[in-house]
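Can't paste images in this forum, so I'm doing it all in text. The chain is below; anyone willing to post the predicted structure tokens underneath?
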Amino acid sequence: MLKKFIILLAMVVAIPFITALFIKKDYQVERIIVINQPVTEVFDYVKHLKNQDNFSKWASMDPDMKKTYRGVDATVGFVSAWASDNPDVGVGEQEIKSITPGKRIDFELRFLSPFQATEPAYMTTVAVDDNQTEVRWGFSGHMDYPMNLVFLFMDFEAMIGADLQQGLDTLKVVLEK
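Text version of the structure:
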């Protein structure tokens, strides 16, 4: 009887670890919006990380969040750091890694608490016509085995996508005023 119980217990413990071998480890999220402003105006706004305080959902989640900055905003190497007691915001920083003028800005997000991760993100701008700009905001992430089991219970793409879309919707309002 004890032997059967131990075998059953071992199977119950092993099944999630075996399952995790077959679950994806990476995710990619991108959302798009068209803003009724010229591409130069839109890009000149989004390339400044400090402006994310005006449209990012995460920046608005904790009005008491402490923010610090290193370097010159809108240039490669600029770092915007945040610290919040709100576990949905946590502690981390974002660094501009590359800028293609008028087209693309790449960031590196470094989450320090409540979990540690380093993930890439980007924003692109493309002229639809002289007075309209398509903005894409994207983020990708990775979860190592066996933590990738979380993907069975949480849809990161939908959760992060909703936050990105909310930020883009707010960006549209801010820039079309």
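The chain has a mean pLDDT of 91. Residues 25-176 form a domain with the Alpha-D-Glucose-1,6-Bisphosphate; Chain A, domain 4 fold (CATH 3.30.530.20).
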